[in-house]
Amino acid sequence: MKFFYSPMYEVDLGEHILPTIKFRLIKEKLIELGIGTAEDFEEPPPAHDDDVGLVHSSTYLDKLRRGALTPDELAVLDLPFSPELVEAAWIGVEGTIRTARYALETGLGVHIGGGGHHAFPDHGAGYCVLNDSAIAIRALKREGRIVKAMVVDCDVHQGDGTAFVFREDPSVFTCSIHQEDLYPEVKQQSDLDIGLPSGTGDEGYLEELSRHFLPALEIFRPQLLVYVAGADPYQDDQEGELRLSLEGLERRDQMIYREALRKRVPVVVVLAGGYARRTADTVAIHVTTIRTGLHVLGRGGG
Ligand SMILES: [Zn+2]
Predict the structure, then answer these.
(1) How far away, in angstroms, is 179 Cα from ligand 1 center?
(2) How far does residue 39's CA lie from ligand 1's centre (Å)?
(3) I need a surface site. Which of 23, 60, 126, 253 has the fewest CB within 10 A?
(4) Can you identify the CATH homologous superfamily of domain 3-297?
(5) How many CB atoms lie under 10 A from the CB of residue 198?
(6) For the chain, what is the largest distance between any 2 Cα atoms, rounded to a whole number of angstroms?
(7) How far is the CA of 144 from the centre of ligand 1 (A)?
(8) How far, in Å, is the centroid of ligand 1 from the Cα of 260?
(9) How confident is the model at residue 302 (pLDDT cuts 50, 70, 90)?
(10) How many of the other CB atoms lie within 10 Å of CB of 191?
(11) Which tens digits make up the pLDDT trace of 226-239?
């Protein structure tokens, strides 16, 4: 099993709630647990601009390259700007593209990165510079590898950028299950939005996910499923209040993978958010998502 990862994801953000150290810690944990060896991690180069341009405007990409975002744009992005941040974003896009190609070949692709779901075509937002999932779907469609794709966004925040990108594209079904009274204040319309109240907890969450996601997958029948596996619905997260336990999050993962397996849909996993008080919890949640995927869909799983 190959994992896609770059040490460049560990961008120095100073005192910021986003723990960019998590990517390296996840890699180390996977090696420690014997799930992967050092040779299993492929480091992607930066994405080609003609791929990034499948979603983002040339004006925005130009501003990023020149470091010319306005103070307002920087405030919406909510990250300290640096050339390293831009470099990591371009690498993150290629990471998701390669992971998606790998998923089509093997049934499961894991990107230890990605999930920039708040990024819009002409601006970044909410810690997301580029929308890697949307770009990867467009790139694979252009390569003729897929016609239809589905995004299942289980980050605690609505996948507003992704919903916006595909709002008039019937070949991509966007589904977001999130906390309703949370960032982004203005929601976009996904093909399926499951907006939950704060404090929902395991049972309510899993019931809603199963009630809505299963029939959507059954009806839409995508050729690729992008699983935006945010760790922030966790009960000890500093940003979200959906209050899922570690076990609840694992059951969420299992539900996604098992249904994908039943319908023979390849899954590409991207990590997205995770702001647990203890970074070790965020790492553990992501590692469980990866292990569960391997168990259900990976080696000997299908
Ligand atoms: Zn989030």
Answers:
(1) 10
(2) 30
(3) 126
(4) Histone deacetylase domain (3.40.800.20)
(5) 13
(6) 51
(7) 31
(8) 23
(9) very low
(10) 18
(11) 999 999 999 999 99
Would you state the structure tokens that stand for residue 24, as one six-digit string?
A: 């390296």
Q: Ligand 1 mean position to 21 CA, how many Å?
A: 17
Taking the C-alpha atoms of residue 14 and residue 5, their distance in angstroms, rounded to an integer, is 22
**pTM as predicted:** 0.97
